[in-house]
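User: Hey, my collaborator sent me this sequence without any context and asked if I could get a structure. I don't really work with proteins. Can you help?
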Amino acid sequence: MTHLGNRHAPRPETAGPTGQAPGSVDGAVFIPLFQGETRISDRRDEIMTTILGSCIATCMWDTMAGVGGMNHFLLPGATSDRGDNMRYGVNAMELLINGLLKKGADRRRLEVKLFGGAKMFEGGAGIGAKNASFAQWYVENEGFTVTGSCLGGTRGRKIRFWPASGRVQQCFMTTMTDPAVPVATRQSRDDNAAQGDIQLF
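Assistant: No problem. I've predicted the 3D structure and written it out in structure-token form, which is a compact way to encode the shape of the chain:
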């Protein structure tokens, strides 16, 4: 696994019988991702995890090459000019794309799923919406295929990403400190799920 963020990589958490995600196998390793980080992996036993509020997570992968990656970014916000926001967002995306290409991905085959961009506080500056708008603009402008997304809303999300296959599991959270206990499992692409529901993408 390649770590491209600005922090030291946390120690992986090995999934046990009670810690596995649905569909995972014994020995799967959960790799946490924090704000400002980008990770790339071609290991089928790794599951990238992150918790989102107004931030965005971009999940990008090449199924044929068996490699994928995720970034977790937040634009500087209303206090920064549009140029600063654009440069920061583009850099976050380019780190992800270039990391995938170095691992053997073909840019023409890259697929994308986008998550996050929630409005977490009343009367906020709308940074979540700006993050989401940037992410959508970027992938469209670069010609990538978006196969799934869940953006906006007012709740945090817990994301699990299987980088080698592109599978994503999303769980809405009641608060940003709750463990996001699931109450149901179903296919969905909207933000109307009950709190704690698992959604598969």
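In plain terms: Residues 2-6+27-200 form a domain with the 60s Ribosomal Protein L30; Chain: A; fold (CATH 3.30.1330.200). You can pass these tokens on to your collaborator as they are.
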